[in-house]
Write a structure and sequence with these properties.
84 residues, single chain, alpha+beta
Amino acid sequence: YATIFSSEDKLKLVKTDKFKYSQVINLAMLVNFVLSEDMDGIVLNPESESVLITRSTLLKYSLGFERFANDMRLSNSIYYMFTL
């Protein structure tokens, strides 16, 4: 599973003694990555709401993600991380 957080506040709820880093993502690229790497899905906001988006749901809506969530301005965002 890939994990994503809808806000910095949601990420701060994760209890760990490790450093935390965040990235801004192109959601369509993430969905494509999850599907192409044969992952099981996406967990949105673990340790709070924990919404599970299964692989079958991602497959069902993959064209919608490509059409409506593909922000090309974020294409290079995978190369940058931010400390919290």
